[in-house]
Amino acid sequence: MSNTITAQPRRHIDLGSVGDVPPITGAAKEYGFKVVAVNRSLTPTQSNENIIVPKGSPLKTLKDLKGKKIAVPQGSSAHGLALNALNSVGLTPKDVRLVFLDPAAGATAFNTGKVDAWSIWNPQSAIAVKNGARILAKGLPPIDQTSSYYVASEKSLDDKAKRAALTDVLKRLATEFAWAIKHEDKYAEALSKEEGIPLDDAKASVKAFETRVTPVETADIAAEQKLADAFLDAGQITKKVDVKSITDNLLPAGYDSSKLKVAS
């Protein structure tokens, strides 16, 4: 499943779906896009990502991570979870060793004992837990968000025709997600194919992928601003990001894809 529309010359992308960190790191590098909508979890009390430790690990609390190696995909939502989780117990990135690895490499490092913990999303987190890993910290408020975001290029947003097209694409995606919620078996099959995981693992993770599309709300901006400030304080970005200034809602106030009527 792709959450982008057709790329244009020079790798120009009109619309993309990202976690909560890329809008911050991208804005810090002045990539020229804005946050235009939110993919909001239908089960906000269920974490989409976690900090996990291997079976038999002596680590019991976040404070126990001091001096330990933590695998994390750099610049990702899981990176944000790690920073906020450490900060919540008075630790900083200097107190641990963040090992930046993509999910595949992170799984290898975690499974072979080369790292002490792993900050990672589902389905990788759910699969590891199924195989004996233990959750040290869940990716839930106040240390993490359960939402993801849609971003669009400023160039496309400034074009009246493209802006209308982007809005249409978002509404089409919203309808597809609403349909998927009512057809979990089909959704699990798609997840299995997209993620390259067994169907049973996809079925176990499907709830974490059920979302509704809404406009960006004040609380989202506040959460993103907190995360942006954490990245700045940790030295992961060098420029302060004003999240409100990179927000441009494409959907009308009150829009909620979970209320859409879709074919059974």
TrEMBL record:
Q: Which UniProt keywords apply?
A: Signal, Transport
Question: Key word Signal present in the record?
Answer: yes
Q: Name one Pfam family in it.
A: NMT1
Give yes or no: UniProt keyword Signal: yes
InterPro entries reported in the protein's UniProt record: SsuA/THI5
Q: Which residues form the SsuA/THI5-like domain?
A: 25-165
SUPFAM superfamilies per record: Periplasmic binding protein-like II (SSF53850)
User: Which function does this protein serve?
Assistant: Part of a binding-protein-dependent transport system for aliphatic sulfonates. Putative binding protein.
Would you identify the family this protein belongs to, as annotated? Belongs to the bacterial solute-binding protein SsuA/TauA family.
What is the official name of this protein in its record?
Answer: Putative aliphatic sulfonates-binding protein
- Organism, as annotated: Streptomyces capoamus
